[in-house]
Design brief:
With 474 residues, this protein is an alpha/beta fold. The protein is 39% helix and 17% strand. The chain has 19 helices and 17 strands. The strands form four sheets. The chain has a six-stranded parallel β-sheet, with helices on both faces. The structure holds adenosine-5'-diphosphate and alpha-D-glucopyranose. Alpha-D-glucopyranose is lined by residues 8-10, 13, 159-160, 210, 243, 375-379, 398. The site of adenosine-5'-diphosphate (ADP) has 18 residues, from helix 1, strand 12, strand 13 and helix 14.
């Protein structure tokens, strides 16, 4: 949950959605691990006295954990933190290490046992991604005896089906499900596999994902990553709800992380942000040179193969500058290093995670590039719209649902959208973006259209509430 721990959009969504539910008066109790990467210096961590020093056996592994509360910085929301240094005292949030399954089984079981200890019967257990996807199954097996949960419904939100949490069957005992083999996919067991996400897809009362288009896409082999058949069987219980944007954090009118604030009526600050950014990054200080920004995990999902194929040549042929913030797969990091060395005046690659720079790139760039191969929702394109930085996106997932292709003839549309995941598509899109940038009238309209879009949680959060009400019949 941002700002405590973040590697991508899940942190933004988990925090913003919790804040929304709380603001609407719902009794929301969010639990996350107390990762050692969390800066606890300014946190009011308070032990919950009856949730201290508890025992948890996962197979032969014995852990002691405690649950504390803290206020989510920048808000009044109390959240719960699962303190278990043995599992969460690691350099990063995700480790990919040999006990990764234990780290998230512990989180899932602590969530359930915390409710038991509090005698709290939630209407909804809202689980996010494979890490917590065993909760629905646990509610029907290990904890099925507990009448506390008789009216509780489980919801699994799929933020990215490319990550499923797949392990060998040797973890069955750690899961505590050795007597419930029948509940797991027999086909997987035969192939020595246990898939956390799949068990969530099978047992959650409701499945949601983070955009309507992605909800349709994952029913196909191209996007379903092997779960398409199952999802098709459950498709009456699968719904796509587009993510929202937390405008208290992402708003050029009041953003404390950018040097100059601005709004749709007065965009002078945006130009100043660009100039300051170019200076800061050591790029050619030329106000009329279009600046394209990227902020991304550097992974195959994000369309970086296309960037590799298209952008070096375009930099030779066209006048534009590029700033890239991100880290990830070595091949992409090396590529952007090389690109920077090849075009030192016009390309800057900032390797790493930097929230302030992410805001500044949104505010200081002219165009924002997001040519994803697949994108369950994507948040940066929605931030870009709000910051008057028209996004260049591929028509997939949440990108398709949040960006409309601009038509200079009608003045309608909010960005540049290309259909086919190939070099021709991306080259066309960047060219079209650069061309629109030169046409001042169209450009102004395009910026204004984007800045007027309202992808706030006010709207999207209410959709969750409505869906939850339907599910619980309350
Ligand atoms: P994903 O969750 O797939 O990474 P999203 O677009 O949903 O994609 O969310 C990415 C979030 O992470 C955005 O808030 C973006 O600003 C942030 N982000 C990604 N990479 C970085 C980085 N290197 N530094 C700072 N913020 C980043
Ligand atoms: C995942 C997806 C991204 C989405 C985010 C939050 O990380 O890759 O598209 O916006 O989750 O739902």
């Amino acid at each position: 949950m941002t700002p405590l721990a973040k590697t991508g959009g899940l942190a933004d969504v988990a925090a913003a959605l919790s804040l929304y539910f709380d603001a609407q008066g719902h009794d929301i109790r969010a639990l996350m691990p107390l990762h050692s990467a969390i800066d606890t210096s300014g946190l009011d961590i308070t032990p919950v006295h009856f949730l201290q020093d508890r025992h948890l056996w996962l197979g032969n592994h014995h852990y002691r954990y405690s649950i504390d509360t803290a206020t989510l910085p920048g808000s009044a929301l109390k959240i719960y933190l699962l303190r278990c240094p043995e599992l969460y005292d690691r350099p990063g949030v995700y480790t990919g290490g040999p006990d990764e399954h234990l780290r998230f089984i512990a989180l899932s079981r602590a969530a359930i046992e915390m409710c038991q200890a509090m005698a709290f019967a939630p209407d909804i257990f809202h689980c996010h991604d494979w890490h917590t996807a065993l909760v629905p199954l646990y509610l029907r097996t290990l904890y099925a005896w507990d009448r506390l949960f008789a009216r509780t419904r489980s919801v699994l939100t799929i933020h990215n089906i490319a990550f499923q949490g797949v392990f060998g069957t040797d973890i069955l005992y750690d899961m505590g499900l050795q007597d419930h083999r029948g509940s797991l996919s027999q086909e997987d067991l035969a192939q020595d596999r246990i898939n956390f996400m799949k068990s969530g897809v099978l047992f959650a009362d409701l499945l949601t994902t983070v955009s309507p288009t992605y909800a349709r896409e994952i029913l196909s082999p191209e996007y379903g990553m092997g779960l398409q058949e199952l999802l098709r069987q459950r498709h009456g219980s699968l719904i796509g709800i587009l993510n929202g944007v937390d405008f208290t954090e992402w708003n050029p009118r009041s953003d404390p992380l950018i040097p100059h604030t601005y709004n749709a009526r007065s965009t002078a600050g945006k130009k100043q942000n660009k100039q300051a950014l170019l200076q800061e990054l050591g790029l050619a200080d030329s106000a009329d040179l279009p600046l394209i920004g990227m902020v991304s995990r550097l992974t195959w999902q994000k369309g970086l193969d296309l960037v590799q194929q298209v952008v070096p040549r375009m930099l030779e042929q066209r006048r534009f500058a590029l700033v890239v913030l991100g880290s990830g797969e070595t091949r992409y990091e090396q590529f952007f290093h090389w690109l920077q060395q090849s075009f030192p005046d016009r390309v800057c690659f900032w390797r790493g995670f930097n929230n302030r720079l992410a805001h500044w790139i949104e505010a200081g760039s002219d165009l924002f590039l997001m040519p994803s191969l697949f994108e369950p929702c994507g948040l940066n394109q929605m931030y870009s719209l709000r910051y008057g930085t028209p996004p260049i996106v591929r028509r997939t997932g949440g990108l398709a649902d949040s960006v409309q292709l601009f038509d200079p003839a009608t003045g309608q549309g909010t960005g540049i959208v290309f259909d086919h995941y190939d070099a021709t598509g991306l080259r066309w899109a960047i060219d079209f973006g650069l061309q629109l940038y030169q046409d001042k009238r169209s450009w102004r309209k395009l910026m204004q259209n984007g800045m007027a879009m309202d992808y706030s949680w006010k709207r999207q959060g209410q959709v969750y509430v409505d869906v939850f009400r339907q599910l619980t019949g309350r």
